[in-house]
Amino acid sequence: LHKDQAEDAEGPRALSDLCLAQVCRSLDSQCSRRADGSMSLSRAPLFPQETADQLLHRMVTAGILNDTTVGIFRDREVLRLRRASIRCCPVSAAAFRLALCPHRLQELDASWVPGGISGANIVSGLASNPECRSSLQRLSLNGLCLDWESLDEDEGVRVGFGCLQGLRTLNLADTDLTDAALEDICTLPQLETLDVSCSAVSELTALLGCKNTLRSFIAHRLRQFDMSPAGLLLVLSQLHALRHLDFSDDHFAVGDGDGGDGDEAARQLLEGSPRLLPSLVSLDISGRKRVTEAAVRVFVEARSGLVFLGLLATGVSSCDVLSSQGNLKVTGEANENQVCESLRRYRGRECFVREALVHLYNLTTDIDKPRPDILKLVLSGMQSHPTSLHVHLVATACAFNLTTQDLAEAMPVRLLTSTVTQLLHAHEDLPQPPVQKNCLLALCSDYILQDVPFDKYLAATLVINWLSSHEDPTLQRMAVAVISVLVAKLSTEQTAQLSKDVFIMKQLLAIVQQRAMEGEADSTLKFALSALWNLTDEMPNAAHNFIQCQGLELYEEVLESYYTEPSIQQKVLGLLNNIAEVEDLQAALLEEDLLQHVLALLQDPQVEVGVRYFAGGILAQLVSRPEAWTLDEELRATIVKELHTSIMTWTSLEREMVSYRSFQPFCPLLQTCQPSGVQLWAVWAVHLVCSQNGKTHKLYCGDPRVIACSVLRMVEQHQSHWGGFNERNGP
């Protein structure tokens, strides 16, 4: 396989990954507590050093790293960290100093840590360990308040970045980094990579302090930048080791202005002599205005070693010279390669992700081949900007384009699970009509609903709530279809939880009433009836809600109105079966007109067996309890007789018609004290359930003894099959 294909292919998770996941899940039971409440591993063996790093990373991605759990890393004899991360985790300055600073760290990512920890806390903590001062090579503090003025002095010397003499890479994007702090940073003797994007830096003369070591400088969207083009180019001209320069800008943020001196400096850089930045192989000026195709052509032709050029949102990425450079990667909007490169490189920059997704949407509108590589990029964009409405407006539409029809079936299942999970988060956290519509469109896929694992309970509740405020017939149909499938996929516990909500019952009954009043026998009505049927299956709470919401009266009308629609009759009668199984609700069904109608369906040989089966089930349940019967006894005797007579004429069903959570509804009907017609229906039902999911056993005779023997044979075959399986695989 090609490398990208190999990475996308489905395969089992690594054993080490599974083990670490289990450790995270059971961390509480494996730890004791110190006096301050922090955790300490009990009876822990010495972890391999890389495994300790992986455990910390796993705790970060699982969202369980905090002041309490980070305490396990205080024990350096068991867990020795080298590459540490507390990114986005609520870890305080005190917990950080106790748990991580004693380690001989080589890398630390403390970006976007909430809760008040500052860059000064991080630096002073690291500097408190003499080993870290020389060992730390990479530090990321993106998104933190540096609080530089609060740094203490150590033996008369101010503690700062300059104390971390081993630093080679320093990331300070989205911080309050000042010109004074930048001067301190540029004294680092080994500094090679520096990111000051979106900071308060106003001028870059301090870079001359590391002109012989700095190889990569990233300065995206400097909000307070105040250098003339000539002054900037003078500084850049002395950075002899610089190979990558990012001087891009957020064109959404600067509005419709001309971009000022920064844009002019970018233009002059392109048009300048190759003796300016002679080692440069990578330049990013995405978002800069005033860039011309002529300037791009001059720059590219003069630098044969160029490997990357960022031109997204400049308007010149379609320059013909770019296509002739085989090894040159370009971010832009001219073609799929440029757009995908933009999504790969700019994952953390909302403005560029948004821009690239707009162009990707146009590229994927008529896509006819599965592209998991592109879906991964879309998913990454959503995950990186979970609260951005601008990103999700387009990303959700792209996700739908990439998973529509048969495309989803060719995608890795884990990728689809992650995508659907992100769509559900977007639906819940960004309740805007276009986003929610796109999420619903993507969810309305038989393959995704049936075969892809995701939180179906969350999905069901979100779609049901969404349905309450939308009346568009097309979207309503899709929503009800999704709900009907999701409800059938829920566990018994989840269905019970969902069935407690009267609001859900009211919503679905309102759909049934609306469609029935219009005389429609469309898929919306059928899906709503299916959802209600599944929702009430062995769920007394849902059955009570159905009666409370006047569902019985509505269903009686539907039953009479759709006499010639067997698919609708089956769903109506199926739900009434569920009601009949609840003893304290049977009285609600004891209406002579209703029972006469159901009896007529049972008796009519022109009616499909499926309809007659459910009609028989209702009647069997109601006549099985003579002590609760309140109608004329002659009617009960007629029902008992007709049950036996009708069932004796039924033939086997060729298709799967119904599934049951258990055999519990049939057990009371199989008692020896029950009339033969009641017993016969129950045995026929058990046989139906057993034969639907295995080899079909034809019923040539309505004799209950024959049917019962057939059921027993199927049970014996099942036991024999699994018994043999167990023997082959040991105890």
From TrEMBL:
Top-level taxon in the UniProt lineage: Eukaryota
Chain ranges of the Protein zer-1 homolog-like C-terminal domain: 381-696
Pfam families: ZER1-like_2nd
Record GO cellular component, one term: Cul2-RING ubiquitin ligase complex
Keywords of the record: Ubl conjugation pathway
InterPro entries: ARM-like, ARM-type_fold, LRR_dom_sf, ZER1-like_C, Zyg-11_UBL_adapter
UniProt similarity note: Belongs to the zyg-11 family.
PANTHER family linked to this entry: PTHR12904, ZYG-11 FAMILY MEMBER B, CELL CYCLE REGULATOR (PTHR12904:SF22)
Name of the featured protein: Protein zer-1 homolog-like C-terminal domain-containing protein
Source species of the chain: Scophthalmus maximus
